[in-house]
Amino acid sequence: MAKALQSLLFYLITSACMISLMFAQDQFEYYNFSKANLSLDGMATILPNGLLQLTNKTALKTGHAFYKVPIEFNSSSSTSAESLSFSTEFAFAIVPENGSLGQGMAFVVSPTPDLSYGGASSFLGFVNTRTNNKTDTHILAIELDTNGSAEADEKSGNHVGIDVNGIFSVASDNASYFNGTEGKNNTLVLANGRSILIWIEYDGIDKLNVTLAPVPTTKPGSPFLSKFIKPSLPLLSRTINISEIFMERMFVGFSGSTGTLTSNQYILGWSFKKGGKAESLDMSKFPNPPVSSPPSKSKSKSLQIIVPTISTIVLLLILGGAIYLYKKKKYAEVLEQWEKEYSPQRLSFRTLFKATKGFKENRLLGAGGFGKVYKGELPSGIQIAVKRVSHDVEQGMQQYVAEVASMGRLRHKNLVQLLGYCRRKGELLLVYDYMPNGSLDDYLFNTQNPKSLSLSQRFHIVKGVASALLYLHEDWEQVVLHRDIKASNILLDANLNGKLGDFGLARFHDRGMNIEATRVVGTIGYMAPELTAMGVATTWTDVYAFGAFMLEVVCGRRPVDPDKPREEMILIKWVATCGKNGVLMDTVDSKLEGNFSAKEAELLLKLGMLCSQSNPENRPSMRQMIQYLEGNASIPDISFDTYEFGIPNIRERNNETGTTQTTTSSLANFSYDTVTVLFGGR
């Protein structure tokens, strides 16, 4: 009996310890962070007095501190509200460095404690240009921003914001706290060098509250108030469904960053609890943050070197002036008043010049009718492609830059991301994500350095481009016409995913707006017959170009090839003839050497011909194309009679007889550069 009681007692004690350990993972309280279970990176460090320091005076760096143990959310063992609710209270101090207020910091809930990829400056260290505003980022952040030069949605350079998956706040307000005695909100400067308390609470259903208050100071002889009562009204109260953001295991912690402006950011105490109210912090246990460094007021008291002669002074002044003028001209930009609203998308020429090592030839990725493209790397480590586009006139530049800014807001996994732009006299520079595998055109047609793609890989690329076009045509806030779909404008990432790029000819239209004919742009062989005849670009003309692109991919040859026999010169016509004669597979790229799925090849060829119908209304929409490519809908029967297809008109006029005919000689100097045809003298 005694042994049984001892066994039972041992079991109960062990179970209690395990339950206590599990509970401790969801609740903690820290004052001396040298004893905390934290993961640190970047500038983050723990000072000898136990103070947690996120950032220091080092420019353009980040610092992170996360609780090492993941918090279990969406637990099946508890109710939904219990599994998602949490509460945290912490005290922080942002100490200016030489008068600089710095960039700011954030409390972060992330699926990983490793945010070393986070960008400095306005990204606050928890996202970068690739992850910003992406739903698969799964990050909730409460930003304490001290820099007023950031995004347009921010109200000031001293504000608090609730961020979801990026740095654009879903709710924000100027930093302040509710004073119950006065019955009003009092402004609170975040970077004042003093300690500030913050409470962040989520009820597990839909309400997220953020409350601020200064740590009270006491007069000599006054009793010290160890625990401060939270203000009755929160600064921010936002309805938000955190179940759409959080994964089952999330990490909690802090992220800070510096830009060219720096500050020292400290955490003095931190308590957290999942499924209830976090323990109130005891302010008597807070370590004191270092005082702010005053702006340097040192002035030179005397000249260290006396210039021997006036001529030497003049020579130095002339030399310095020449160097200044040279650098000013070297990095000169064009910046007009109307461009200020696009400042988040604008990059300096100096930055791009250094990123590309001065646009050296060994950084050249390619060149075309619109300019040259160079590889570069930003200080944050992000690889970029910089396209230098020449322009001689300023007419229409304001509209074009507005459209460039709109392109920067397009977000789709199969679109090449436009990161920003820069303007100089006579040229425009566009900055894109770098695609390490170059263009699809290089894989299909480069004979000097041949590269191979299986038909399955090509099929995957086609589906990706189709998904991007569906987004542009139907899923974005405006209708976007690309107007130049072809293999050379499809870029491949490290995993050979196809991404539609080169939006130099793209146009944005409000839904339901009438589209007027002003000019025809595009590439011969990809332009729909109604486009060349009437000058009206629609989603149907993009579909026609996509059809020509699909035939190009599966056949491994361009829409018009002057080196082929007359009957094979026009790709659409040749595929139609082979289809009519029952030898459709003869058109498949010979470089595949028969190693392909006939079913996939037939589907691509028939869809390419379906998009090439001469009547625009007979062409499928991009939504239908996705259904066909995914196998969720049966492709309609098509006839291979050539009169039903929009055959490109490549003709040469006989001035003596007044007739026209297609000839090989007329294509002797044929080029696949993008062409522009003006209509009506406009």
Automatic annotation (TrEMBL):
Residues holding ATP: K387
Catalysed reactions, semicolon-separated: L-seryl-[protein] + ATP = O-phospho-L-seryl-[protein] + ADP + H(+); L-threonyl-[protein] + ATP = O-phospho-L-threonyl-[protein] + ADP + H(+)
Entry EC number(s): 2.7.11.1
Primary localization: membrane
A GO cellular component entry from the record: plasma membrane
Cellular localisation: Cell membrane
Domain Protein kinase: 359-635
SUPFAM superfamilies: Concanavalin A-like lectins/glucanases, Protein kinase-like (PK-like)
Transmembrane feature ranges: 305-326
GO molecular function: ATP binding; carbohydrate binding; protein serine/threonine kinase activity
Keywords: ATP-binding, Cell membrane, Glycoprotein, Kinase, Lectin, Membrane, Nucleotide-binding, Receptor, Serine/threonine-protein kinase, Signal, Transferase, Transmembrane, Transmembrane helix
Protein name as catalogued: non-specific serine/threonine protein kinase
Family statement: In the N-terminal section; belongs to the leguminous lectin family.
UniProt xrefs under CDD domains: lectin_legume_LecRK_Arcelin_ConA, STKc_IRAK
Signal sequence residues: 1-24
Top-level taxon: Eukaryota
Any single Pfam family the record assigns to this protein: Lectin_legB
Keyword Nucleotide-binding set for record: yes
Topological type in the membrane: Single-pass type I membrane protein
